[in-house]
Amino acid sequence: MERAEKEKFITEYKGKLDKAAAVFVADYRGLSVAAVNELRKTLKKANVEYRVVKNTLMKRVVAGTPYESLASHMREMTAIAFASDPVAAAKAALEFKKTNESFKLKVAVVEGQTIDATGIEQLSKLPSQPEMRAQLLGLINTPASKLLAQINAPAGNIVGVVQAFVDKQKEPEQV
Questions:
Q1: What is the pLDDT of residues 15-34, one digit of tens each?
Q2: Residue of 72, 76, 111 whose CA lies nearest to 90
Q3: Which has fewest Cβ within 10 Å: 20, 26, 56, 60?
Q4: In order of start, what are the domains of the chain with their CATH numbers?
Q5: The pTM is what?
Q6: How far apart are CA 115 and CA 73, in angstroms?
Q7: For the chain, which ranges sit under pLDDT 50?
Q8: 97, 33 in Cβ contact below 8 A?
Q9: What confidence score (pLDDT) does residue 174 get?
Q10: Which residues does 157 contact at the CB level (< 8 Å), separation at least 6?
Q11: Phi and psi at residue 32, in whole multiples of 5°?
């Protein structure tokens, strides 16, 4: 790679770091080409960009950024994944790992915090952003729906009494 290409790479990947909510470092050693392609497809569905990178260049990219802690894990065969949703990325990567034992997640930086493989596994157990939004919406709507039920209860009781009176009037009188 020529110097101009290296500078372009560094600039491009610094931009990707700025946009990412999380960056994962993985060791893909032992995976076949077909398995790596399957991994790319799996991660792409989760909106994750997966790239095999040159360690020396990535160390220059992360230098002086909140992702600097990743540099110590960039040795041997390294791949980087840029994610906008850390939970979805962790779930997708660990789902792939179930069928491909040789794939290893080394470390990740999620919103400025460095987490190891165990932390990534715990991250994957959290609800995703859409699930969290749905839960939050449910929590917000619960008091309003309960209030509405309480407001409507007296009217429902009155309707029940009136209906019972009407039903009693329709019954033939028994002597």
A1: 888 888 889 999 888 888 99
A2: 111
A3: 56
A4: 3-126 (3.30.70.1730), 127-175 (no CATH)
A5: 0.69
A6: 12
A7: none
A8: no
A9: 60
A10: none
A11: -75, 165
